[in-house]
TrEMBL record, chain A:
This is Molybdopterin dehydrogenase. Keywords: FAD, Flavoprotein. Gene3D superfamilies: 3.30.465.10, CO dehydrogenase flavoprotein, C-terminal domain, Uridine Diphospho-n-acetylenolpyruvylglucosamine Reductase, domain 2. It comes from Bradyrhizobium centrolobii. Residues 1-222 form the FAD-binding PCMH-type domain. The keyword Signal does not apply. The keyword Flavoprotein applies.
TrEMBL record, chain B:
GO terms for molecular function: iron ion binding; oxidoreductase activity. InterPro entries: Ald_Oxase/Xan_DH_a/b, Ald_Oxase/Xan_DH_a/b_sf, Ald_Oxase/xanthine_DH-like, AldOxase/xan_DH_MoCoBD1, AldOxase/xan_DH_MoCoBD2, AldOxase/xan_DH_Mopterin-bd_sf. The lineage of its organism: Bacteria, Pseudomonadati, Pseudomonadota, Alphaproteobacteria, Hyphomicrobiales. Residues 33-144 form the Aldehyde oxidase/xanthine dehydrogenase a/b hammerhead domain. It comes from Bradyrhizobium centrolobii. This is Dehydrogenase. SUPFAM superfamilies: CO dehydrogenase molybdoprotein N-domain-like (SSF54665), Molybdenum cofactor-binding domain (SSF56003). It holds the Pfam family MoCoBD_2.
């Protein structure tokens, strides 16, 4: 491997100062970064290990009814936190459908947000990739691309963001708290990940040195707990990224949808909030017809970027199904196969 | 490595014989405690690390390597390239026998597939060697890669598999099709697949003058010794290979591949012990794989649903520089009775490493196509697919007309169907749903694999203390050879298994033959059995010729060996212990050798195959196309079962692999560059635990007096056959959609 320096800052300020240097990168659990380094995809000069920073591993209920999740909280710890799973069931379900149990035990909240695309051409250093090396070209565009983006892609990049966790989070208006060289700021998660346009090398709105310290769920996010699901179609039951996924969350009052939240995963370079579809749902009776209509609306702008036209139709069906499941009510217990269309299969071995 | 000390077996139920007991594997505790020493666990003093640099192009030439940059990197000791490498005694391009395949050991700057080794960096740490390899920054002269089943002009290969004719005929296929009442024609495609053994290929090589000591996982100790001897120009007895455990081989560790040879060369170059372990992605190229196929099947039936013709053609690929042809169409030789059968192959050359043996080579690829087509034919006839298979049951081997040495397939169908509940299956597809509204489908596939035998030798001894020893250079790939062969040894010596010192896994022991072709237990077992009989005969001679022995004069009546004693066959009250016989004779031990080999006369007379029937249930989400296998039952008849526990595990593994074949596995090759885009275990999908349903294995009683002395047919590969087709057929039955390109993908079912 390329030799690199390693520092373990004691404070957030020290961390930010260290990571702002050229060639520096943050290391948390490393479940993605270390693979990237082993493959020569990422060749940092300095790793700034943030796993020993104090106070970033807490799940804190806020006075206003919101929740603050420290960036170093492990994916598994968050998913298995009873209060969290009860209040934000679709987020817990998404977390448990991601990666494998071993990876979830290690991976952090902040790291999950900032994981890189799984586009094979990004990982293959012999291929051209504008995200890995700006301006080099995109070998995925005419390559093996049946799982690539159908929304928000550009000629320079058709990669998708792989996170499951981010999909319900973006639906629930999660906010990202960032410490940077100019102090603390916060942005909506929806604004964290960037669509590629002409600069796919920039995954996110973060500046050098920026450290995600927490993810916050606003008070309103709790209001969907009774009708919230995450649904993920994938090529095996665990340890596989979504072909397409969707998070659906509804508030139903007096037989009407008072408020709807919908986001898609595996379809774009960011978790894809489908606000147009939410508008279709708002105020309607929760029935199959409106779910179909919402599904159509969610994918209006979709277009294939390669051998992946099927993903558009699949996404429509997943949206309609996720809405149907959400309307039926959050299950009392986490399904044995979280987010799977076979979630209800009895006797299944837990994924 | 300390002398291998196997844990003793727990107190299992005994019924007078070691063979047939479901012993847990004797090396199990070593493995779960991390004390089983695999090749890469060895660290001789002064050892250096070697890392291969591999080509990123599939075809062309390396024009430059920045050797200086690599050498400047701290810790790098040397860089081995075509310009700087030890001379080999023979050109690695020369095929000295049919089991030698061409390897890339830096003999030139030519690149003939992606991930081909182009240099080796040797350093004091793994990290330094890895970075040194990256710093080589190779430049290439690149030619366009030839990729896929239509890459170029096709040709008929001289042979397929191991020496099988590329074409076979019996009867008149065209006439059979012309006269048929019903006909089907269908084309199926299977993708390239890679073995992906958990343990990558690894070697630790230590030269001492012209002696060579090697730790390396191998399925063929003596073949490896012979190949290394000729490549390095040293006598075979100067080479010692230790291979006590393999973390899976599946055919990829059968023959010497290039990378371990590079490890030995590197050790020679630097004059120190060297370890070379492949990275996962480096296993997608130089160590073999299963070639893709496109198979066209044509069948016809008469008005009763009896086959009138079966035509199976397979297109496959080989590398541009060597010949191995997946004998996929040969799967149609043995299973279904048809008056006319034709099997044929053609191939194109592509820029890949040479495809080689991978678990059930030919049988697995051919089986999924044949079993799918048989299902399509049954449907065309409106007949239940099990009834259709029974109607076309082969009483003799269809392609040769030979009788079977044994064939309990009918019992497999009956017992499997009963366990599965097959009788309740709807004939029409897309009729069954579960409570949640998911589509339910049931499918069947017939399993078959030849009962092969190779050559092996074993050495047996009975010692003065009454204990026994059995030595054979056998290979435990995880299948349980340490246990199953020791069971055979114990019976052969007439001793309890704990009284037998069983030695295996090193090249200085008698040749056990290759652990492949599902023939290792049969072959090594036959040698062990015969060595046991030979040493008992010597012991009996001592006793029956000694007038002080109670067995004196029993020569004609004969003696039997049991529990460490010899008894007169006609009077079991007369006998004495092994220890008494040897003590009286003043001998420390008696020893004898025995061999195992195929019986040419029996092979001439009989067709020898294991059989099975696999039943699968899948559920499919009707809108989303997501598939889940929910149940599998496999009933197999494979002759004598040496250890039912280990055999069940072998068959489970095969069935899971069959399911993987139908639904998951595929090496995705970039059609422009010839690079494999998912050369890692994250993206090359195999089933995870959560994908594997409850599996049920039935081993059907079968006695075969012809295959070998012990009646063993082997179970290593048969499980994958039948299973893949059963799952594919269940998907059709659930959905009404016949997918003919494997693995079956979600989009195919988004109807």
């Amino acid at each position: 491997m390329k030799p690199f320096d390693y520092v373990r800052p004691a404070t957030v300020a020290e961390a930010v100062a260290a990571a702002a240097q050229p060639g520096a990168t943050y290391l948390a659990a490393g479940t993605n970064l270390l693979d990237l380094m082993k493959g020569g995809v990422s060749r940092p000069d300095l790793l700034v290990d943030v796993t020993h920073l104090k106070g970033l591993d807490r799940i804190e209920p806020l006075a206003d009814g919101g929740l603050r999740i420290g960036a170093l909280v492990r994916n598994a710890d968050l998913a298995h936190d009873e209060d969290f799973a009860r209040s934000y069931p679709a987020v817990a379900e998404a977390l448990l459908s991601g990666a494998s149990a071993q990876l979830r035990n290690a991976a952090t909240v902040g790291g999950n947000l900032l994981q890189r695309t799984r586009c094979a051409y990004f990982y293959d250093t012999a291929s051209r990739c504008n995200k890995r090396e700006a301006g080099s070209g995109c070998d995925a565009r005419d390559g093996e691309n049946r799982t690539h983006a159908v929304l928000g892609w550009s000629e320079s990049c058709i990669a998708t963001h792989p996170s499951d966790f981010c999909v319900p989070l973006v639906a629930l208006d999660a906010i990202v708290e960032i410490e940077g060289r100019k102090g603390r700021r916060e942005i909506a998660l929806d604004g964290l990940h960037r669509l590629p346009a002409d600069t796919p090398e920039r995954d996110s709105a973060l500046e050098p040195g920026d450290l995600i310290v927490a993810v916050r769920l606003p008070p309103a996010a709790r209001g969907f707990a009774a009708h919230a699901r995450y649904l993920k179609v994938r090529e095996r039951t665990s340890y596989a990224f979504a072909v397409v996924s969707a998070a659906a969350a509804l508030q139903i009052e007096n037989g009407r949808i008072k408020e709807a939240r919908l986001a898609l995963g595996g379809v774009a370079a960011k978790p894809w909030r489908a606000r147009g579809a939410e508008d279709v749902l708002k105020g309607a009776a929760p029935d199959a017809a409106v779910f179909q209509q919402a599904a159509q609306r969610a994918l209006t702008e979709a277009k294939p970027s390669g051998d992946n036209a099927f993903k558009i139709e699949l996404a429509r069906r997943i949206v309609a199904r996720a809405l149907t499941l959400a309307a039926a009510g959050t299950p009392a217990r986490m399904p044995a196969l979280p987010a799977s269309p076979f979630a209800s299969t009895s006797g299944a071995i837990h994924a | 490595m300390p002398e291998l000390s196997l844990t003793s077996a727990p107190a299992h139920l005994r019924h007078g014989s070691n063979i047939g007991q479901p012993l847990t594997r004797r090396d199990g505790i070593l493995k779960v405690k991390g004390q089983a020493t695999y090749a890469a666990d060895n660290h001789p003093a002064g050892m250096l690390f070697a890392v291969m640099a591999v080509s990123s192009i599939a075809r062309g030439r390396v024009t430059s390597l920045d050797v200086d940059a690599a050498k400047r990197h701290p810790g790098v000791v040397d860089v081995m390239t075509p310009d700087r490498r030890p001379q080999l005694a023979i050109d690695p391009e020369i095929k000295t026998n049919p089991f030698v395949f061409r390897i890339e050991v830096l003999q030139s700057d030519e690149v003939r597939y992606a991930n081909q080794p182009i240099a080796v960096v040797i350093a004091v740490t793994l990290e330094a060697a890895t970075e040194g390899a990256a710093l080589l920054a190779p430049r290439y002269e690149t030619l366009s890669a030839r990729v896929g089943l239509d890459a170029g002009d096709s040709f008929v290969p001289p042979v397929v598999g191991v020496g099988n004719p590329a074409e076979n005929h019996r009867g008149d296929v065209e006439a059979g099709l012309a006269s048929a009442e019903k006909r089907i024609e269908a084309t199926y495609e299977t993708p390239p697949q890679y073995h992906n053994a958990m343990e990558p290929h690894a070697i630790v090589a230590v030269w001492d003058g012209d002696s060579l000591s090697i730790d390396m996982p191998t399925q063929g100790l003596m073949l490896s010794v012979a190949r290394i001897a000729e490549l390095f120009g040293i006598a075979p007895d100067k080479i010692r290979i230790r291979s006590p455990f393999l973390g899976g081989g599946f055919g990829s560790k059968g023959l010497m591949a290039g990378p371990p040879v590079l490890g030995i060369m590197a050790a020679k170059l630097v004059g120190k012990p060297v370890k070379l372990v492949l990275r996962r992605e480096q296993m997608y190229g130089p160590v073999g794989h299963r070639a893709p196929t496109r198979q066209r099947l044509r069948m016809g039936t008469d008005g009763e649903g009896r086959l009138t013709a079966l035509d199976h053609h397979a297109r496959t690929v080989s590398s541009t520089f060597d010949d191995f042809y997946e004998p996929a169409a040969d799967a149609s030789h043995t299973l279904y009775a048809s008056p006319a059968i034709r099997t044929s192959h053609d191939a194109v050359r592509v820029d890949t490493g040479t495809p080689l043996f991978m678990r059930a080579p030919g049988e697995a690829t051919g089986s999924i196509a044949l079993e799918s087509a048989i299902d399509e034919m049954a449907w065309a006839c409106g007949i239940d697919p099990l009834a259709f298979r029974l109607k076309n049951y082969a009483e003799v081997e269809p392609i040769t007309g030979k009788p079977f040495s044994s064939k309990a397939l009918r019992a497999c169908y009956e017992q499997g169907a009963a366990r599965f509940g097959w009788a309740r299956r709807s004939l029409q597809p897309r009729q069954m749903r579960d409570d949640a509204g998911l589509l339910v489908g049931w499918g069947i596939g017939t399993a078959t694999f030849p009962a092969l035998m190779f050559q092996a030798e074993a050495r047996a001894a009975i010692r003065r203390d009454g204990s026994g020893a059995m030595e054979i250079g056998a290979h435990d790939m995880g299948q349980g050879a340490w246990t199953a062969l020791a069971q055979i040894a114990a019976d052969g010596l007439g001793l309890d298994i704990d009284r037998v010192a069983f030695k295996a896994g090193t090249s200085d022991l008698p040749d056990a033959g290759i652990a492949g072709g599902s023939a290792h237990t049969a072959t090594a077992g036959a040698a062990i059995h015969s060595a046991g009989a030979a040493v008992i005969a010597k012991l009996a001679d001592l006793a029956t010729n000694d007038e002080r022995s109670p067995l004196f004069g029993a020569g004609n009546a004969g003696v039997i060996a049991r529990d460490g004693r010899l008894f007169r066959r006609d009077d079991e009250s007369r006998g004495e212990s092994y220890a008494e016989i040897l003590a009286r004779a003043g001998l420390a031990e008696v020893e004898a050798r025995g061999t195992g080999a195929p019986n040419p006369a029996a092979m001439e007379e009989y067709a020898m195959h294991a059989h099975g029937a696999v039943f699968a249930e899948v559920k499919v989400d009707p809108e989303l196309g997501q598939i889940r296998v929910t149940r599998m039952v496999g009933a197999f008849a494979a002759g004598r079962i040496v250890n039912p526990h280990l055999v069940k595990s072998q068959l489970f593994g095969g069935m899971i692999w069959g399911m993987s074949f139908a639904l998951h596995e595929e090496a995705i090759t970039d059609r422009r560059s010839g690079r494999i885009m998912n050369a890692n275990l994250g993206e090359y999908h195999i089933p995870v635990n959560a994908d594997v349903p409850p599996l049920d294995v039935i081993t059907v009683e079968e006695h075969d007096p012809h295959v070998n002395a012990l009646g063993i047919k082997g179970v290593g590969e048969i499980g994958i056959t039948g299973s893949a087709g059963a799952v594919a057929n269940a998907v059709w039955h659930a959905t009404g959609v016949r997918v003919r390109r494997f693995p079956i993908k979600i989009e195919e079912l988004l109807t």
